[in-house]
Design a protein that fits this description.
By secondary structure, this protein is mainly alpha-helical. The protein is built from four helices and no strands. Helix 1 packs antiparallel against helix 2, helix 2 packs parallel to helix 4 and helix 3 runs antiparallel to helix 4. The longest helix is centred in the middle third of the chain and has 21 residues. It starts with a helix and ends with a helix.
Length: 77
């Protein structure tokens, strides 16, 4: 486990509703050669970001997270 994954895991533990932490950890898992772990994080990021997008007036940031998670999921295949 890299220091980045450890830090992001800590952040997720304390703020599980924030999709960006899952997104970044998924990208780190993918970079480290763990596509199965990355896939789970990308799915979590996509789900949380989609929920926030639906609630936000200015949801373009959350839509960007959804798009980035989708790109990560394509790389996991």
């Amino acid at each position: 486990m890299t220091p980045e994954i450890a830090l992001l895991s800590h952040l997720i533990e304390h703020s599980p509703a924030h999709p960006v932490y899952y997104l970044l950890r998924g990208e780190e898992w993918l970079a480290c050669g763990y596509p199965d772990r990355a896939r789970l994080d990308f799915l979590a990021a996509r789900e949380r970001a989609a929920e926030l997008f639906a609630q936000a007036e200015w949801g373009y940031v959350f839509q960007a997270y959804v798009d980035r998670a989708e790109a990560g999921l394509r790389e996991c295949r």
